[in-house]
Amino acid sequence: MTTNTASVSNRLPAPQHEQPTPPDGPTPSGTRQGADLPAAERGRTSIAEVVVAKVAGRAARDIPGVHDMGGGISRTIGVVRDRVPGGRPNVARGVKVEVGERQAAIDLDLVVEYGVPITEVAQDVRENVVTAVERITGLEVVEVNIAVNDVRLPDDQGEASADTRVE
Question: Whole-angstrom Cα distance, residue 98 to residue 144?
């Protein structure tokens, strides 16, 4: 029986000797940089938390049954801010986010209309927020936590009731 050592050695990869490359010189084979990359892969994109908060706030407010967002104090400040000339409504009120490189976690504080099924509104808000944030930012939404802080009653117009029990 004869062993063919040439066939065994032909199957092994030839040893490669790496030579240092100058910093501005060509890159090692197999890696691409700069002009060799497609335009879409040249650089990084970072998305600020305020961007995700605005997208999530807008998506949550689009759901029927959501009256407002935020806790009592933030809503009060928001009303005052909205009345100041030149003031803009804060769509991120009631939204807290954590943003990583590829993922986001979102917390929402809601005020819902009286009579709507709260669990259904929460589910619709969660689905709309996840869809909007993932579509617009490209981030994966890992969770959307919803706290319903208040319910807007039909007679919560800020007007005193004409029919009071006490004089």
Answer: 11
